[in-house]
Fold these 3 entries.
Entry 1:
Amino acid sequence: MTSIRHITPEVEVVPDPILDAARDVIMTHGPRRATLTEVARQAGVSRMTVYRRFESFDRLMSALLTQELAVILTGMPRPGAGEGTARSRAVDIIVAGTGAIAGHPLVTRVLAVDPEYLTPLMVSRFGQTQRSAAELLTPLLSEGMAARGGDGSVRDADPAALALACVTAVQSFVFAGPALSVLPEGPSVREQIRPMVDGMLRPDTEGVRP
C-alpha cells in the first residue's frame, strides 16, 4: 500500500457548548429520547436559544453529524500525488474513510440504539457528509481517466456520478456495522470493500488480451 498523507489540514473545530451538549445527550440517551430541553440544560443555555439556532432536534442532530464527520473527511489520510495510480489512491481513501466513519462513536451509538434515525440517509436523500465525500473523490477520479488527460487507471465516466456511486456502494458497510460486528465473518466481509471498489473503478478493457 502507498504511504499516506493528509488530504488537507484537519478541521479546527471551534468549541460549541450546544453541539457538545447534544453529543453527550445523544451518547447517553440516543437521538429518539434526546430533547432540546435536555440539550439546553446541559449546555447551560435556554431552550429558546437552542431552538433559535436549530429549530428542531433533527436539525441539531444533522449539524452535529456534519461537524463530527467533517473532521474525518477533511483530515482523511490520502496517498500523495505520484504515489501509485489515481485508482489505487482513490481506493485507499474510500477504504480508510469507510472504516473511520463506521467506527465513529456517534455513528456506532446511533446505529446501536436508534438505527431508523439514519434511514433517510439510505433511502430518501444524501446528507452533507455523503455529498462532501463524493466531492472529495471527484477530482481524484478525474486524474485517473484517460479521456480527461489522466493516467488511465480509472474507467472513463462522469467523475461526479462515479464518485456518488462509490459512496452509495460503501455506505452499506457503515449502516450494516452493528450486524457485521456480531458475525464471525464480519472482518472478512469488511475486507471486500477494497476489491469491490477497485472493480468499480477499473477500466473496462484493463486486463483484456487482444
Entry 2:
Amino acid sequence: MNYRHGYHAGNFADLLKHTALCELLRLLTVKDKKLFVLDTHAGAGGYDLTADKARRTGEAEAGISRLLAAGTKGAPAAVVRYLAAVQAYDRKFGAPAGALRRYPGSPRLVRAALRPGDRFVACERHPEEALALKREFAGDRAVEVRQADGYHALKASLPPVERRGLILIDPPFEATDEFEVLLRALRQGLRRFATGCYAVWYPIKDEAAAAEFIAALGDLKLLAMELRLGAEAPPGKLAACGLVVVNPPWRFDESMREALPWIAGRLGPGVSATCSAPAASASAPASGE
C-alpha cells in the first residue's frame, strides 16, 4: 500500500510498458467493434516530473527525457506514436517547448486512444492515488474510476459485455508472494475471459522467480519482453523488468521486435532488450479479436 509511482514515472520500465500499451491500443481499435479496457493498478493517472518525488529519483531523466533527446529520426513507428502521445499529454498543461514537465500514466494513454462507445475502468487501491486518479478524470464519463483491489476487479469485470478487451495488470510488487498472486489472478481472468488480451508487467529482481512465472504461462499464446539496464543501472535500483502479453493482436510481435532494441540503443551502451514467444505458445491458436 506504500508504493507511489510518482517516484518512478517516465523511467525505463515505463518506456517498455507504455510503448507496448500504445501499440496494443492502436491494434485493438482498428476494427470497428467496441473495446473494453481494464487497468487493475492504475496509479494517479498523470505525473508532474518537476515535483519532488520525480526529482528525488531522477529516473525520468534517464528514461523518457533521454529517449526524447535522441529524437525520432529513423525511429520505429511504434516509438514515434508513443512519444507523440507523451508530448500531447504534456501540452494539455500549457508547458513551454523544451523539457518534458508532465508524464502520462497508463490511464491517460488509454483515455487518449478510446473511441466513442469504448469503455474504460481504472482501479487503484491506494487512497491518495485513487483520489488523484478521480481528480484526473473528474467529469469524464468515458472513464470509470474505482478505489478497489485490482485483482478483485478482474473477477467483477470479466467477461465484459463488449466481448473484446484489453486488461493491463501492473502490480506494485510489494508483497513477497506477488508472482503467485498475480499468476492466480491471471488464470482466473483467463477462465472468465479466455480471448481477452492481457498485458502483465513485472520487475526482475529475482531472475529465477521471473523465469518461473513466464514458464508457468508456457501453455498460452504470449509474447514476453524484457528491458535491462545492465551497467547503466544505478546501484540499488531496479535494473530489469518484463512485460508479457497474452493473446497479443496480429502484428504486435513485429512492432515490438522493432521498437524495443531501438529504445534500448538510445538509453545507453549497456541497455538491452529481448522479445520472444515461447515455443509452446507460438503454436497456440490466435485470439479472437
Entry 3:
Amino acid sequence: MKAMIFDWDGTLVDTLPAITRANAEVLGSYGVAYDDAAYRAAYSPDWRSMYRRLGVPAEHVEEAGDRWLGEYRSLMTEVRPFRGVEAAIGRLAMAGFRLGIVTAGDRPVVEHQLEATGLARYFSAVVCGEDLPFAKPDPRPLLHALAQLGIPDDPGRATYIGDAPDDMRMARTVGARGVGIVSIIGDRLELEAAGASEVADSVAEWVAALLGTGVEA
C-alpha cells in the first residue's frame, strides 16, 4: 500500500451528532419529521439526493443546503478528533504512507477543522464536496485524490477509510481497498455489504492492528 485516504466526518472527527441535528432542523423547516430509521436509509454524501429522498421539495433543495450549513456552523463550535486519531495518523505518516482526505464536507469548514485539530499537516491531498460536480459513491472524487497523491493509475495500492456504505462503494468502484469504520450511519453488516474489505470500531483500532501497536489513549 502506498496511500491511505480518509473520509472526514464520522471517521476522523466526531461531527456526526451535529450533522444529524442540523439535518433534523432543516427537515423540520420543510414540514418533514425527522426519523432515525428514515434518515439512515436515505443517508448519502450526495446531500441533494438525500434531501429529495427524505421529502424536501426539489425546488427547495439548494436552499435547504444553505440552511443546513448555517445550522451546522452554529452547532459545531468545537471539533475534536476521535480518541487516538492524531497518534494513529502520525504513525501512518511516519511509516511513509501518502495521506489524503475525500469528504463531502464544505471546504472552508473542513479546512478550518483540519487546522483546529492539528491534523492539516499530515494530508497532502484534500478533496471536498464542492471541488467536483460529483459526489460519493461516484469514483471521481477518490480518483482526483489519487492523482494529487501521485498514483492516478495505481488504485489497487490505495486504501479508503470511511464510515458510510457509499464510502465503501466508491472504493470498490475505483479498485481501492475499502475499510469501514462503524458509526451511526453505517454498522458492520452495512459496511461489509457495501464492499468493505474489513471493518473496525475506530481508526485508532484499525491503525494499531495494521502497524502492530497498541491502541492509543
